[in-house]
Specification:
heterodimer; A: 149 residues; alpha+beta; five-stranded antiparallel beta sheet; 7 strands; 23% strand; disordered C terminus; B: 990 residues; six-stranded antiparallel beta sheet; disordered N terminus; AP-2 complex subunit alpha (chain B)
Chain lengths: 149, 990
């Protein structure tokens, strides 16, 4: 996988993960183009499209689009399920995840992703194991601050 | 709590309501694909606007470990964010605040540091640029509090900066964490390396990570991270990741008890196997037995690795993918076991689903498609291939668009196998139907691709007809490609050429705008080369031109063909010479300049073909709109053709305007264009197999050409025909008879402009740094230069050879990937004096085109303008690398991708003396390695190109053949452009 983007129906980028070295300018350009392309697609269309020399796999969950760019040799359907498994992980961790969770707990969304995918490849596909790793890390928090007071 | 609600409320008001909607895992099986408007989307999930609120607040409490400031600023940002300006103002205020905290006298504690670094990250992720805080993030890395460290690493991963000072500090922190033996810290450090993946990190850690990966006491989770971390480093810097002694232990990770470790390690093994198949070939039997165990396991055996009743789908796909790096196993038992697995997978596809959920069928079919890819890759089991084809045939009519798309895609590759080509063809009606009825353009595109792939002589007419009729309504985005495909199929399977001509003219009629030059050039090439079709072509194009509105491309083809072969239909009074001319000329005024130029050439050809039209045509040429046309090209043609027709004798005219000689047979330029469009390999599959299947019998060059005739050897297609754009008309109208024309028009011949780029001196400097770059009667330019790493300094000496001063002397350098610091030179150069200019050079990234040096000055009132290629080539930034034979060959093997290598075989132009060659190679800047190549006559060198952006390792091998006076030069480097450029440069040196 070359990169993964999460963006809202309004085209706001919520999470970006790049597995290939690109300049900021290129990243912005790619994001702009892809968000436009994907948002322009109609609901019943297929979840895959060719874009430049990559294959784009995307899926919409409520207000959020999850969009992965994979290479020619990669498997589209299994990528679709990578997206789904990631959503499941977020959902389990946050308990009925919504877009706001990802906005405000963006660091958690990144940590979960790093446990699940690394370098663009599935690292650990067991839901239990990924969440265990994240929870262990949470336990390492020395003090629980109540930031709201 | 009192504070919380207002804050959240602020947030709530300004986020679109949908942000509160849960992502719908529980709500429905396949999450609804459309939630068009706000009220609907909420009701879909059974939440009201307010019902969603407590849920969100819950998260903000219970799980939010990020500092409260975040919520506050984002609330403010978005509440103020009615306008973009207000948001930016608010952000800037926040940034100023953070900056002052970081700069303040009071040292910040870890917690505050983390808070502000986290805020910066948040601001960055909102889409604003962040240019500070890196140092504070690096400080967090060495905190012993986990969350502080974690935020530090996240900041580095997201906002990595190639600031080398910082990289050293980051690497230091990573080193400490890797050595900590605390698995959580180790994983964080490994994730950071995998996320950044820079060359500096590869240099620092590529040696250490394999050890962590295979060590017996490493925790599973660390192994997983280490494997993928190494994969990332290998992808960016393959020359630095050397598996060597670890190879077999890495392969044996496929046997690991822990499924997660296997899942991670197999990605690494696959990537390494692609590059070094021999060293990793033991993985095949291990992969087969692992696969077999998974495939035959019950859906519950693998516990949490079972996904919607499918056992280990990710691992299965990866195993099947790994096997595609190798040919079918030679060992009969292993092969038998594998065939059994593949059969089981195909069988499972026929079983009733264990769940109605789309995840179940996706996971199951992902494995099925990967298995089919493997079957196609082996291309040796007719039984499996046909079964695969039947399975895909079922998917062609599946209700899931995704499956139809993938089935079409996968069938495209099946069509190129001789075992399954016929089976694929049986689905032609379904595919044609898909082309007509699919609602998604990307699916239609796949259908068109498949039709192209399954086309052969038996169905060509049907497929071409369908594609043509589809073209009338096709989406603009795919028209050009469709046109190319139709043109290629029509040419390739033409049984008789009248059908071919009809098809192409239809193509121009239906989609004229998308018919590129290559397509109409090609039809003309073919008509010229086949005399049996010329009469028909002339008649058809004459008829096509009768249409009141015809496309300009049609006029071009018509003009050319009637100009050459109009005589073949001139017997019919309905298409007498004058009728033909009038028809063509009626289109003249509607056409663009290049077409008009072509028509003028057709007219002069008419004068030769039909002397009776001479008076009419001369009159046309003589009228002011031609002979005084404001376009130079048209005017020149009109003048010259008029003159030619009036002064040249009929014999000269007949020789000059003779029928075009046949074009040499070569690869269709259209095919070359399609290949270029789709990238290498995209068309070649069906193309190469074609010859095999049809056993020759092609009617034209496309099938007869040898594999060597590549695009490179073909002159640009635009030079093929009338050469409308550049060449002077005399030469183009009469190839092969140009010398005669020069006599006729000796005073009218255009003078070559003197302002071209002078690159004579350039090549002499590839292997040396000092010398005279340029000299003429006025000026001598000398160069002295020195280079270190990616920096260089070049002294330019401008010598005035005359006794008169040069005034307004300027010299400027055009820059691409190099940065120059240069001082303007003194505008006066006294007679006999010498002026010096210093260029300080920094190479930012690898480059191919030399910078241009432009010099202007006035000498005795006349402006002198001179452009030279500055002798600055990529090899100047070489750092020599000494290495032994074993190292050399290991690296050589690692750089074995076709694009990493550039090779040329060429004739010696200079002395082949060994010492001379050595001196040149040393001048090149690489290390000349002794005792590496087994053949002592050969030379091998190694070096690293230093640029600011990256370092590119290069290996060179030069094999002289004294008897043949030839060389073979091979370059391999991690960057294709570098190999290619060096090879081009060096081929001129020996």
């Amino acid at each position: 996988m070359q990169f993964m983007l999460l963006f809202s129906r309004q085209g706001k980028l919520r999470l970006q993960k790049w597995y290939v070295p690109l300049s900021d300018k290129e990243k912005k350009k790619i994001t702009r183009e892809l968000v436009q392309t994907v948002l322009a697609r109609k609901p019943k269309m297929c979840s895959f499209l060719e874009w430049r020399d990559l294959k784009i796999v995307y899926k919409r969950y409520a207000s959020l689009y999850f969009c992965c760019a994979i290479e020619d040799q990669d498997n589209e359907l299994i990528t679709l399920e990578i997206i789904h498994r990631y959503v499941e992980l977020l959902d389990k961790y946050f308990g009925s995840v919504c877009e706001l969770d990802i906005i405000f707990n963006f660091e958690k969304a990144y940590f979960i992703l790093d446990e699940f995918l690394l370098g663009g490849e599935a690292q650990e596909t067991s839901k239990k194991n990924v969440l265990k790793a994240i929870e262990q890390a949470d336990l390492l928090q020395e003090v629980r601050h109540n930031y709201f007071l | 709590m009192l504070v919380v609600f207002p804050v959240v409320f602020l947030v709530l008001v300004h986020f679109p309501p949908s942000t509160f909607v849960n992502l719908g895992l529980q709500a429905s099986d396949s999450p609804p694909d459309h939630t068009p408007t706000f009220p609907e989307c909420l009701s879909l999930f059974g939440h009201s606007h307010w019902a969603a609120l407590p849920q969100s607040t819950k998260h903000l409490h219970s799980n939010s470990q990020c500092p409260s400031g975040l919520v506050l600023i984002s609330g403010w940002v978005l509440s103020a964010g009615k306008s973009k300006e207000a948001e930016i103002k608010r952000i800037n205020k926040e940034l100023a605040n953070i900056r002052s905290k970081f700069k303040g006298d009071k040292a910040l504690d870890g917690y505050s540091k983390k808070k502000y670094v986290c805020k910066l990250l948040f601001i960055f992720l909102l889409g604003h640029d962040i240019d500070f805080g890196h140092m504070e993030a690096v400080n967090l890395l060495s905190s012993n509090k986990y969350t502080e460290k974690q935020i530090g690493y996240l900041f580095i991963s997201v906002l990595v900066n190639s600031n080398s000072e910082l990289i050293r500090l980051i690497n230091n922190a990573i080193k400490n964490d890797l050595a900590s033996r605390n698995p959580t810290f180790m994983c964080l450090a490994l994730h950071c390396i995998a996320n950044v993946g820079s060359r500096e990190m590869a240099e620092a850690f590529a040696g250490e990570i394999p050890r962590i990966l295979v060590a017996g006491d490493t925790m599973d989770s660390v192994k997983q991270s280490a494997a993928l971390c190494l994969l990332r480093l290998y992808k960016t810097s393959p020359d630095l990741v050397l598996m060597g002694e670890w190879t077999s232990r890495v392969v044996h990770l496929l046997n690991d008890q822990h499924m997660g470790v296997v899942t991670a390690a197999i990605s690494l093994i696959t990537c390494l196997s692609q590059k070094n198949p021999d060293e990793f070939k033991t993985c095949v039997s291990l992969a087969v037995s692992r696969l077999s165990r998974i495939v035959s396991s019950a859906s519950t055996d693998l516990q949490d690795y079972t996904y919607y009743f499918v056992p280990a789908p990710w691992l299965s796909c990866k195993l099947l993918r790994l096997l595609q790096c190798y040919p079918p196993p030679e060992d009969g038992a292993v092969k038998g076991r594998l065939v059994e697995c593949l059969e089981t997978i195909l069988n499972k596809a026929q079983e009733p689903p264990k769940s109605k959920k789309v995840q179940h069928s996706n996971a199951k079919n992902a494995i099925l498609f990967e298995a089919i890819s493997l079957i196609i890759h082996y291309d040796s089991e007719p039984n499996l291939l046909v079964r695969a084809c039947n399975q895909l045939g079922q998917f062609l009519q599946h209700r899931e668009t995704n499956l139809r798309y993938l089935a079409l895609e996968s069938m495209c590759t099946l069509a190129s196998s001789e075992f399954s080509h016929e089976a694929v063809k049986t689905h032609i009606e379904t595919v044609i139907n898909a082309l007509k009825t699919e609602r998604d353009v990307s699916v239609r595109q796949r259908a068109a691709d498949l039709l192209y792939a399954m086309c052969d002589r038996s169905n060509a007419k049907q497929i071409v007809a369908e594609m043509l009729s589809y073209l009338e309504t096709a989406d603009y985005s795919i028209r050009e490609e469709m046109v190319l495909k139709v043109a290629i199929l029509a040419e390739k399977y033409a049984v008789d050429y009248s059908w071919y001509v009809d098809t192409i003219l239809n193509l121009i009629r239906i989609a004229g705008d998308y018919v590129s030059e290559e397509v109409w050039y090609r039809v003309i090439q073919i008509v010229i080369n086949r005399d049996d079709v010329q009469g028909y072509a002339a008649k058809t194009v004459f008829e096509a031109l009768q249409a009141p509105a015809c496309h300009e491309n049609m006029v071009k083809v018509g003009g050319y063909i009637l100009g050459e072969f109009g005589n073949l239909i001139a017997g019919d009074p309905r298409s007498s010479p004058l009728v033909q001319f009038n028809l063509l000329h009626s289109k003249f005024h509607l056409c663009s300049v290049p077409t008009r130029a072509l028509l003028l050439s057709a007219y002069i050809k008419f004068i030769n073909l039909f002397p009776e039209t001479k008076a009419t045509i001369q009159e046309v040429l003589r009228c002011d709109s031609q002979i005084r046309n404001s376009d130079v090209e048209l005017q020149q043609r009109a003048v010259e053709y008029l003159k030619l027709s009036s002064i040249a004798s009929t014999d000269v005219l007949a020789t000059v305007l003779e029928e075009m000689p046949p074009f040499p047979e070569r690869e269709s330029s259209i095919l070359a264009k399609l290949k270029k469009k789709k990238g290498p390999g995209a068309v070649s599959v069906s193309d190469l197999d074609e010859g095999k299947r049809d056993g020759g019998g092609e009617l034209n060059g496309a099938g007869e050409r040898g594999p060597e005739s590549s695009v490179v050897s073909t002159p640009s297609p635009s030079a093929d025909l009338l050469g409308l754009r550049s060449a002077p008309p005399v030469g183009s109208a009469a190839q092969g008879a140009g010398s005669l024309l020069v006599d006729v028009f000796s005073e009218a011949g255009p003078l070559a402009p003197a302002s071209g780029v002078n690159d004579d001196g350039f090549l002499r400097f590839v292997c040396k740094n000092n010398g005279v770059l340029f000299e003429n009667q006025l000026l001598q330019i000398g160069i002295k230069s020195e280079y270190r790493q990616n920096l260089g300094r070049m002294y330019l000496f401008y010598g005035n050879k005359t006794s008169v001063q040069f005034v307004n002397f300027t010299s400027t350098v055009s820059v691409a990937l190099i940065s120059f610091i240069t001082k303007p030179v003194d505008p006066l150069v006294e007679g006999g004096a010498q002026l010096q200019q210093v260029l300080n050079i920094e190479c930012l990234s690898d480059f191919s085109d030399a910078p241009l040096l432009n010099i202007r000055f006035r000498y005795g009132g006349a402006l002198q303008n001179l452009t030279l290629k500055l002798p600055l080539t990529i090899n100047k930034f070489f750092q020599p690398t000494e290495m032994g034979s074993q190292d050399f060959f290991q690296r050589w093997k690692q750089l074995s991708l076709p694009q990493q290598e550039a090779q040329k075989i060429f004739k010696a132009n200079h002395s082949m003396d060994k010492e001379v060659l050595k001196a040149k190679l040393l001048g090149l800047g690489m290390a000349l390695l002794e005792n590496v190549d087994p053949n002592p006559e050969n030379f091998v060198c190694a070096g690293v190109v230093q640029t600011k952006a990256q370092q590119v390792g290069c290996l060179l091998r030069l094999e002289p053949n004294i008897q043949a006076q030839m060389y073979r030069l091979t370059l391999r480097s991690s960057k294709d452009t570098v190999s290619k450029r060096l090879c081009d440069l060096l081929a001129e040196q020996f």
